[in-house]
Amino acid sequence: MKPSLLALGAVFVLAACATTISPTGRTQYVGAVPEAQLNQLGSQAFAEMKAKQKLSTDGRQNAYVTCVVNAIVGQLPAQQRQIGWESAVFADDNPNAFALPGGKVGVYTGIFGVARNQDQLAAVIAHEIGHVTARHHDERITRQAGASGALQVVGSLLGSRYGEGVGNAAVQGGGIAAQAGFLLPGSRAQESEADVIGQQLMAGAGFDPRAAVTLWQNMIAAGGSRPPQWLSTHPDPQSRIGELQSRAASLVPSYEQARAAGRVPRCG
């Protein structure tokens, strides 16, 4: 495209964007891609991943993940619960997980080595679902569209967050920008925000919010001198653990209330 057309495209993209407030009170710029299209692209990427990557055939693993996802989703507002949440377990040693617009959650089997019980797994899944509910993918896409001047980004950038298999799921044309928004790392502000939302969700679902602290300690230990890829774009691990510990203490009453109300997950 000619530079003038790219600039014109940017004008139309940015004109369609909107300012909103995130669940933690942060100003966001979203709307470069309509929500329905974003959900469709997320579903398409997920379908292509399942077609191209090896899926776990372990029924217990799949039931375990589904149970945790369902418990977390049960704490979402009604509109967000109704988008058709779906999960899949990928046979991959990478200690990773993700969630996409359209209600798609993927877990790699490698995560079970660091998320050693249902509460720790809930910390991972709730964090990733937090990215979706806080519109972080939408926010990243909007930022990219404004920066590039059009809905075109280089395909080689894909997969830096979720791996090569996800990057290969990118579609052509304008949808590439949306796919990149799924796949590129979130900002530290987004990661911290997903931590906040995730701990609130897991506590409300009856999972112990203190397990998020143990999870990150396990992740750091698993990384040795070189942290896992999942940690590479996240806030400083030690600072993060301190914040998780502080929030966990304030969320224990919510966790106990959830358990008293009968929200007692028995996932594994």
Cα-to-Cα separation, first versus last residue: 53 Å
**Low-confidence runs of at least 5 consecutive residues:** 1-15, 147-181, 225-231
Sequence of secondary-structure elements: HEEHHHEEEHHHHHHH
Question: How many structural domains?
Answer: 1
How large is the radius of gyration?
18 Å
The structure class reads mainly alpha
The largest β sheet comes out as: 3 strands, mixed
What is the helix fraction of residues, given as a range? 40-55%
> On the 0-100 scale, what is the average pLDDT?
79
Oligomer: single chain
Strand order of the largest sheet: 3-5-4
The general outline is: globular
Number of strands: 5
Provide a count of the helices: 11
Strand residue content = 5-15%
List keywords for this structure.
268 residues; mainly alpha; three-stranded mixed sheet; two-stranded antiparallel ribbon; metalloprotease; hydrolase
Descriptive overview:
GO terms for molecular function: metal ion binding; metalloendopeptidase activity. It is globular and about 40 Å long. The chain contains eleven helices and five strands. It is mainly α and about 270 residues long. The longest helix has 24 residues. The strands form two sheets. Strands 3-5-4 form a three-stranded mixed sheet, with helices on both faces. Helix 3 packs across helix 5 and helix 10 packs antiparallel against helix 11. The N and C termini lie far apart (about 55 Å). A hairpin with a 3-residue loop joins strand 4 and strand 5. The protein has one domain.
